[in-house]
């Protein structure tokens, strides 16, 4: 069954009015209104220092603006979904530094108001493919602070930088493609979507080149298991940042 694509504010109001409607009128995993508005941009939060990679800002003025469900919302009808997005740690100009050590991962997500995060996890995999989770490398619980408003908003949605501070830095060899998910649980009665990075060239992009059209979406609630994110709308890239440094290491997975 094809889920309806547009998640209007009227739909949000109806869904918030009664939990029963959530199940009788199964919501869309996407947030994608129709009319464009002007976007407010600023430097990336969570990636201001030691920023290895920032994929770029979302752009509410782009007609392809959207978001894809990423989070656990037990007080919003039990909805949940995960976005997995690829990243490619580029080789360092000094070959001695053959790895990157990642210390934090930030996802820019949109909600209907300031979300209260009660738990947050992270995971990094390789070899993810349609219908296949891939091979897990690292996962765990994040040390997190409450989300910071990015200043970007539109259609009743507000964007927040949600940062996972890794309890132990993750070391990855350069020159390979990895998949990352950060997964917040929020206590609020509202949905949460990972913002897409809509523009080319990317707004405020930092560091490694983005890997376009390689993200995945998985959700038992919505009935999808590791499908390409573009099957749900326009999701060439998601707005994400990573901090850390180049190191010389031989990590064992």
Number of strands: 17
Integer tally of domains: 1
The rounded distance between the terminal residues' Cα atoms is: 39 Å
> Which residues sit in consecutive blocks of at least 5 with pLDDT less than 50?
1-26, 34-42
Q: In which range does the helix fraction lie?
A: under 10%
Q: What is the number of helices?
A: 2
H and E order: HHEEEEEEEEEEEEEEEEE
Largest sheet report: 10 strands, antiparallel
Mean pLDDT: 86
Which structural category do the helix and sheet elements fall into?
A: mainly beta
Structure notes:
It is built from two helices and 17 strands. It has helices spanning 9-17, 19-24; strands at residues 30-31, 51-54, 67-69, 71-73, 79-87, 99-111, 117-126, 135-141, 143-144, 148-154, 157-173, 178-186, 193-195, 206-207, 216-219, 224-228, 240-247. The strands form two sheets. Strands 1, 2, 3, 6, 9, 10, 11, 13, 14 and 17 form a ten-stranded antiparallel β-sheet that branches. Strands 4, 5, 7, 8, 12, 15 and 16 form a seven-stranded antiparallel β-sheet that branches. It is globular. The relative contact order is 0.29.
